[in-house]
Amino acid sequence: MARCIIITAYHTGNIKDSYVPMPGDFIICADAGYLLARQEGITPDAVLGDFDSMERSQVTCPDIIHVPVEKDDTDTLLCLKYGMELGYREFLMIGGIGGRLDHTMANIQTLLYAHNRGIDIEMADAGNTARILSPGTYHLKEKEGYQLSLFALTQTCTGIYYTGLKYPLNNATLTNDFPLGVSNSFVSGEAEITFATGTALLILSKD
């Protein structure tokens, strides 16, 4: 099945710097993400939000979902749930990084919500990508000018091995209260990360 693209209401740079359209993409805009999309000529399939940051009358879209302002879920999480209801299992969340710190943290929690339900999801803007990792081995292609960081979301991530990075790790442990895994550099075209237990947040950030 094709991907579901969620365009959030905050994005640094141009959307098309972090999103390469593919045939069949289903695009949902979270509230004022609609305005960002239209500025770049992107026509969404659905717009979902409480419309606290724009007027509903500004939206021209075949599928408009108006939700209450006072609610437990963020607009972005509701977009994710809507896409899941439609059967999508692969998501790209565009933006949602930077701006208000509480919104960024909420979006990271949205990644974790999806990951815990077996959804493949990545968050990206013009200079960052983020995704949740479960134990296993991952081969990562170098992106020129990008630093790699790995953070423990659980209390610990154990049995960590890095190869192909400037600061290798050998059976190391990451904890959620010490940033040992921040800002590593590729030394070859590909890095390998392996870990045995825990849940981790992988971030690639451009200098």
Average pLDDT confidence is 92
Radius of gyration, in Å, reads 18 Å
Strand order of the largest sheet: 4-3-2-1-5-6-7-13-9
Total of domains: 2
Task: Estimate the helix proportion, in percent.
Answer: 10-25%
Shape assignment: elongated
Put simply, the count of helices is 3
State the CATH class of the largest domain. Answer: Alpha Beta
- In N-to-C order, the SSE pattern is EEHEEHEHEEEEEEEE
Report the count of strand segments.
13
> Structural class of the helices, strands and pairings?
alpha/beta
CATH architect. name of the largest domain: 3-Layer(aba) Sandwich
End-to-end Cα distance, whole Å, is 34 Å
Q: How is the biggest beta sheet arranged?
A: 9 strands, mixed
Strand percentage lies at 25-35%
What name does CATH use for the topology of the largest domain? Answer: Rossmann fold
Name of the CATH superfamily of the largest domain: Thiamin pyrophosphokinase, catalytic domain
| Poorly predicted regions | none
